[in-house]
Amino acid sequence: MMKEVVLKKEDIEPGKMKSASLGKIPIVVCRTKDGEFYAYANRCLHQGAPLSEGALVGDTKRTDVHGNYEYIKEGEILRCPWHGLEYDIKNDGCMLAEPDKKLRSFKVTIEDDYVVVHK
Amino acid sequence: MSQKSAGKKQKQRRIIDTDVHERATYADLVPYLDHPWKRYITDNHWMQEKHMPYTQPTVAGVDRADAVTPDGGAAGTDLSFMQQQLLDAEGHEYGILTGALDPSPSSMHGWYEMATALASAYNDWQIENWLEKDDRLYGSVHIAAQDPQQAVREIERVGSHPKMVQILLPIDKTPWGDPFYHPIYEAAERYHLSIGMHHNEPPTHFGEWPRYFIEWHTMLPTAHMIEVSNMVFNGVFDKFPGLHLIMIEGGFTHAPHLMKKMDQQYKELRHEIPWVKRMPSDIMREHVRFTTQPVEEMNQKEFMQYIDQMGSEDMVCFATDYPHWDYDSPLEALPKLDEALAEKVYSENARASYPKLPQKQGSVT
Ligand code: FES
Q: Which intervals hold domain Amidohydrolase-related (chain B) (predicted)?
């Protein structure tokens, strides 16, 4: 087990994300609107795009009613900058379209206002 | 893991990218226009009508979100950033510029004089700012094809430029195989230019826009199929035996079906088109090429099934579509292929389809 300080807490506003490195691994650190931090490998499972260049967005809730749009999970969905695949950052980085696929995730702790990522 | 992940990472290889979008702003074109055309833009804020009813449901419109230029400009507007992010990063041998389809002179409804002026301005801008600034970039002659005589004049004006390799036609509402447009193909042959067709905003669903972007984007290949069948059945390739047609950004997985279907129809209805003298699939194997992007995820076995059904390894050419949202990575998009086929797909099929591209030199190290 190793751990590394990757950013200062204040480096990321709630609802934003940033690229960083954990040793040699490029990671993306996301902060949801409730202030929590999450860290994932910064590489899309599809064609390898850098996820930190994408956007933190929401999702449209699945529905049985055609034409019904309900926007949920705002700021919790990491959307790839290229083809737009979506990952649920509060749900272990699962891909929304194929939930059995997930991003490599890393444990995050906050220590003295620093974001510490564990491997 | 995606199905094709077993094949990653592909080796660095020779790449001829058949779809690279440079983008002009209207302000970029103004210096290349004379009055009155210039005045219509500067004073009247003229811009080409656009119809697509969808706000693009992607992260950054139709662009890769990471392709915004360092100074915040639109993707594809900055040569040095394109060099850094695409040509240098991926090690391109050549990239074929295909414009950003706005302006798209051949898509304009009416006012063909303005379209003709815009096409000339665009070509001059492209030559000066892109083709003559990077050895790896080759270009497309933009024309106002609605007026074939004027279009031919433009081909005669810039078609012999050594970096111009094709004439660009938008896939929109016009079936380009009609004999009315044949002077364009005659000029293409004369100047050793290929014909590149790239969709613009075709209303794919019975002449209308479908309800959702996902429907439109899924069915874009149908617009490509219409153009290919129209070109073949109107006898373009019988009349111009040296012509190459490259269908850009429709992918290739629809091609086996189209070839099979057209052959069957030809057997039954050939008497209606006596100017077509060979099986459509044979004509297509010789004259028509399909670019890979936007490729569906597939493994090597699936890829080879399509190739087998096409009956040719020569018809598929790699393309990234940089800097658009559905960009395909040269190293990641396709499954691992046998070396000989990979070389054809990534570079040699394109080289054979663009007579003005330099011949293969040396080997990739
Ligand atoms: S690379 Fe991320 S969606 Fe394709």
A: 44-355
Cα–Cα nearest to B163, from B189, B122, B132: B132
DSSP-derived pairing of the beta strands A25-31 and A17-22: antiparallel
pLDDT at site B62: 86
Task: Determine, for residues B2 and A53 on separate chains, whether the beta-carbon distance falls below 8 Å.
Answer: no
CB within 8 Å: A54 and B59: yes
Q: Which of A50, A83, A101 sits opposite B326 (nearest CB)?
A: A83
In a domain, B364, yes or no: no
| Tens-place pLDDT, residues B94-122 | 999 999 888 899 999 899 999 999 999 99
Rounded to the nearest angstrom, the distance between the alpha carbon of A43 and the centre of ligand 1 is: 9
CATH number, position B54: 3.20.20.140
For residue B361, tell me if it sits in a domain.
no
Number of structural domains found in chain B: 1
Q: Which of residues 13-32 of B touch A (CB under 8 A)?
A: none
Q: How far is the CA of B251 from the centre of ligand 1 (A)?
A: 17
Whether the CA torsion A49, A50, A55, A60 is positive or negative: it is positive
Predicted-complex ipTM score = 0.85
**Which of B104, B131, B100, B97 minimizes the C-alpha distance to B118?**
B104
Residue with the nearest Cα to atom 3 of ligand 1?
A: A83
> In this predicted model, what pLDDT tens digit does every residue of B27-50 receive, in sequence order?
999 999 999 999 999 999 999 988
Fold observed for domain A3-118: Rieske Iron-sulfur Protein (2.102.10)
Provide the residue ranges of all domains of chain A, joining segments of one domain with +.
3-118
